[in-house]
Write a structure and sequence with these properties.
111 residues; mainly alpha; 434 Repressor (Amino-terminal Domain); 2 domains; 6 helices; 61% helix; 0% strand
Length: 111
Amino acid sequence: MTPAHVAFGHEVRRRRVEQGLSIDALGERAGLTANFVCKVENAKMDLCLSSAIKLAKGLGCNVGDLMPAINGGLSAAAREAGQRFTELPKGAVRAAMIHLIRTLASGGRKP
C-alpha cells in the first residue's frame, strides 16, 4: 500500500485509541467488521470513499481529518482555527484577527 494508506490507517488507530474504543466497537459504530477496521489500520486494505466516510462518522470526525497528507499536515487545531476564521463576518473583524495572528507569529514585533 501507499504512504497515504499507512497515514490513513495510523490516524484511524490514533483516534480510536484516543477515544478508548476497541476495534470491535469502532466497527460497530461505523457499520463495518472488526476485521475490516484492522486491515485499514494496518494499511492492508484499499478502501473506498464510502468506507472512509463510515470510519470517520464512527470516530466522530470528518473524513478529511483522517487524511493528514491531504490536509497538508495541519493539526486538527489548525484546521479548526481555519474553519472558525471562515465563519467570521467579513470586514473589520477578519482584518483585526489577521493582524493579531501576524503579530503573535512575529513574537510581538510589527509584522
